[in-house]
Design goal:
alpha/beta; 10 strands
């Protein structure tokens, strides 16, 4: 494994990278929750990535996406998401660190109140981002509104480029081959940490997935390092399973090509867990609310109702059903996002009251 890590590091070092995060993020055992579940449960603390108090998994992707943008002389960067998007906020913060003007097109999945800014949207304003709220019009789906936001972003980028600026487009969630490189690198980081813990090996990794960039990167890292680990990607929103896996596989393969690795990803080992997204994106459920309360009560740690709470709920369900064997070494990859605990009440749900 040590040689595989060194080879991966050598390839990764050839790519432009903006040093934005605090790495490696901590890897620690959740002793009380392990005892409760009868498994050996560890957590990867990507809520500690930085670049400020509100870090998350997107910082790993942005190091490569904005690293290349800086090389290209970018003056502006456009990205997309929901009004409470972690990715949009982290992109705005990273842009500020690099002297790039952030521009955000945010779909109002949960419409914000203009006189009551909360959570990530509040931070976006503090960061001085150029913010465009895109409402979901009558008769439109969320996807329709997102497509409109992409068209608006392309028009704004063209306007800036015509004026002599250099504007880059950062895809929603940072889901691109270059963005996914950040999580291939994260798997090398995890392997180094596990080796330092007496050669610890995980049988399963649970994480939340939205746009698929993190999932693609994890699988790219697994292939590059030849890791024998099952990656369970828990959907935070409804997905067409086959189409989603096709897209993730394509992203994964392209990420490996970007790195220059000859590793070949295995689509048959990719799985998306669709048991927890209901009733919809930015809409909590009883299981995610219970997961939020349990982690807080047992470990003093926080997950959110949009992403990580649902991923943890899937892990808890698998442990309680016996799908995870007793004593098995399992990793929960905390991808951040706890700012959603301070978002609109519709997003938080019954996490505090317990229904």
């Amino acid at each position: 494994m040590r040689q595989a890590i060194q080879n991966a590091r050598s390839l990764l070092e050839r790519l432009p990278r903006a040093r934005l995060g605090f790495f490696p993020t901590p890897l620690e055992k959740l002793e009380r929750l392990s005892d409760r579940l009868g498994i050996s449960l560890y957590i990867k603390r990507d809520d500690f990535t930085g670049i400020n108090l509100f870090g998350g998994n997107k910082v790993r992707k942005l190091e490569y996406l904005l690293g290349q943008a800086a090389v290209d002389g970018a003056t502006h960067a456009i990205t997309y998401g929901a009004t409470q998007s972690n990715h949009a906020m982290e992109t705005a913060a990273a842009c500020r660190r690099l002297g790039i003007q952030p521009i955000l097109y945010l779909t109002a999945v949960v419409p914000p109140k203009p006189d009551e800014l909360r959570s990530n949207l509040l931070l976006d304003h503090l960061l001085g981002a150029e913010i465009h709220i895109v409402p979901i019009e009558p008769g439109e789906t969320e996807a329709d509104a997102e497509e409109r936001s992409f068209a608006m972003g392309a028009e704004r980028a063209a306007e800036l480029n015509r004026s002599g600026k250099i504007c880059v487009d950062i895809p929603m969630g940072g889901a691109s081959p270059l963005g996914s490189v950040g999580f291939a690198a994260a798997m090398a980081e995890l392997s180094e940490q596990a080796d330092a813990l007496n050669g610890l090996r995980f049988s399963r990794i649970y994480h939340s997935t939205g746009t698929g960039g993190t999932m693609a990167g994890l699988h790219a890292g697994r292939a590059m390092l030849d890791m024998d680990v099952q990656i369970i990607s828990v959907a935070a929103s409804p997905k067409d399973e086959s189409a989603n896996l096709d897209r993730v596989f394509s992203l994964c393969r392209a990420a490996l090509e970007t790195i220059g690795s000859g590793a070949v990803p295995d689509r048959s080992r990719m799985q998306v867990n669709l048991t927890q997204w209901q009733p919809g994106y930015e809409q909590p459920n009883d299981a995610s609310c219970e997961a939020i309360r349990l982690l807080a009560a047992d470990e003093g740690l926080f997950v959110d109702p949009v992403y990580t709470g649902k991923a943890l709920a899937a892990l808890l369900a698998d442990a309680r059903s016996g799908r995870i064997r007793r004593g098995e070494n399992v990793l929960f990859w905390h991808t951040g996002g706890a700012t959603a605990l301070f978002a609109e009440p519709e997003i938080l749900g019954d996490a505090v009251t317990g229904g």
